[in-house]
Specification:
CATH class of the largest domain: Alpha Beta
Strand content: 25-35%
Low-confidence stretches: none
Number of helices: 14
CATH architecture of the largest domain: 3-Layer(aba) Sandwich
Helix content: 25-40%
CATH superfamily of the largest domain: Mur-like, catalytic domain
Number of strands: 24
Shape: globular
Largest sheet: 11 strands, mixed
Number of domains: 3
Radius of gyration: 23 Å
Oligomer: single chain
Distance between the termini: 55 Å
């Protein structure tokens, strides 16, 4: 998996340098290492606020750009982010110096997990919300966990935490590890509990096809210790195919009768949901969570299964759920102007778009749901889901589709067409509109939104700060 004998973490480490430090997870790792007492430096070509300011406030010495000078004086260890290519000048210099180096998950294993027990949440969808909810439950029930998650958990206003307890919650990413290790990040972890939410095709820049994705998750499950508990979504056939291959150590969750943990009655209540969980056929009564949508109820159910395995009393988990504030960029209300709600969501895969739209329909009364979508990921900018996206917007009343902003990165014959999506949506009877630029969407929404409407803005990127700009114009 590696290309050099220097891909090793020395026994004695005092100074650590991180290449690609301004990435969300790498920045969190840098701060955690600093908190653990290491002298930490970092380099990146995108050294600007807010990440640059945040890291400097944490005492991280930042070096703009990549060069061999950043490796002198030589640190004891270099952590190489997965955004760094083999041709990067600093990576090339690193190979020449012989300085020990490792990937981000290798560093997480050594310095964060160490003698703790890992709780790893993985799957195509729901990783961030599920991991955040699990970390919150552990914290609220007094277990003082650590965590490293791919989103800002609102209760902590952070995507990481160093606790003194036995547990560490990790978001297990199937994306590749580093230029010298093209395997998924999650293969580096040895979880005490693994939650597997779903398996679908995604990350078209990394995976050749769905069979490739299946192999990655199969490798993950096959490497689990017999003592590891696998919490598996019973509603996903691919997940269950892997779960059924295990002889023991499986707890399933879903809406069907055969699941160990099952959803019973469900009653929407605005941006909250009242639900009835069952454990092995026994009702636990009515619970409440400040989340909406069947997908989030399933995420919650997986956390209940994990928490029960850790011995956390059900009443304590029930109380903890009530205070969960959610995750930034996941159904996050950015503001309300003139009775119009502006919401930000990370949805980009057609399944996530469909579930998010369906979950939010009717949450704010009888107003319209206006879906605004920017295809921005390496997968959504490809035509692999061209014919799938139209059905994902069935619950929306008005739809705005932006041209992918980074389309030049994709070979022409593989490019996604926002214009075709709009044509297909109109063929389904939807009121859909195509836009070349974000400015046009803002102008359209200012003229066409009305009090009571929910404007759901979906993108994995900043979307040209459309949320704040729209709120300002509506004011």
């Amino acid at each position: 998996m590696t290309t050099s004998s220097n891909n090793v973490i020395p026994e004695a480490v005092k100074t650590v340098h991180l290449m690609g430090v301004c990435g969300t997870a790498m920045g969190a790792l840098a701060c955690m290492l600093k908190q653990l007492g290491f002298w930490v430096t970092g380099s990146d070509e995108n050294v600007y606020p807010p990440m640059s300011t945040f890291l400097k406030e944490k005492g991280i010495a930042l070096k703009p750009g990549f060069s061999k000078e950043n490796l002198f004086p030589p640190p004891d260890l270099v952590v190489v982010g997965n955004a760094i290519t083999a041709s990067n000048p600093e990576a090339a210099a690193l190979r020449e110096t012989g300085i020990p180096f490792c990937s981000m998950p290798q560093a997480v294993n050594r310095f964060l997990v160490s003698n703790k027990k890992a709780l790893v949440v993985t799957g195509t969808h729901g990783k961030t919300t599920t991991a955040s909810l699990l970390a919150h439950v552990l914290f609220e029930t007094g277990l003082d966990p650590s965590f490293l998650i791919g989103g800002i958990v609102k209760n902590f206003q952070s995507n990481y935490l160093l606790g003194n307890g036995d547990w560490v919650v990790l978001e297990g990413d199937e994306y590749d590890t580093a230029y010298f290790d093209k395997g998924p990040k999650f293969l580096h972890y040895a979880p005490h509990v693994a939650i597997l939410t779903s398996i679908e095709f995604d990350h078209a820049d990394i995976f050749e096809d769905f069979a490739h994705v299946r192999r990655a998750f199969s490798d993950f499950v096959s490497r689990l210790s017999p003592e590891t508990l696998l919490v598996a979504c019973a509603e996903d056939l691919e997940v269950m195919r892997l779960a059924d291959a295990r002889e023991k150590g499986v707890r399933t969750y879903g809406r069907n009768e055969g699941a160990h943990w099952r959803l019973g009655r469900i009653r929407p209540a605005g941006m909250k949901t009242v639900f009835e969980p069952f454990n092995n056929g026994e009702s636990l009564g009515l619970w409440e969570i400040p989340l909406v949508g069947n997908h989030n109820l399933l995420n919650t159910l997986s956390v209940l299964a994990a928490a029960a395995h850790l011995g956390i009393p059900a009443d304590a988990v029930k109380a903890a759920l009530l205070t969960f504030q959610g995750v930034k960029r996941r159904q996050e209300i950015r503001g309300v102007k003139n009775g119009i709600v502006i919401m930000d969501d990370f949805a980009h895969h057609p399944t996530a778009v469909r579930e998010t739209v369906a979950a939010l329909k009717g949450c704010f009364g009888n107003g319209r749901l206006i879906a605004v979508f920017e295809p921005r990921t390496n997968t959504s900018m490809r035509n692999v889901f061209q014919d799938v996206y139209p059905k994902a917007f069935d619950g929306a009343d008005l739809i705005c589709i932006r041209k992918p902003p980074l389309l030049s990165k994709v070979p022409e014959h593989l490019r996604f067409s926002s214009e075709k999506l709009v044509t297909d949506l109109r063929a389904r009877g939807k009121d859909a509109h195509y836009f070349e630029e974000t400015d046009g969407i803002i102008e359209f929404l200012v003229k066409n939104s009305a009090p009571g409407d929910l404007v759901l803005i979906m993108s994995n990127g900043g979307f040209d700060n459309i949320h704040e700009r729209l709120l300002e114009r509506l004011g």
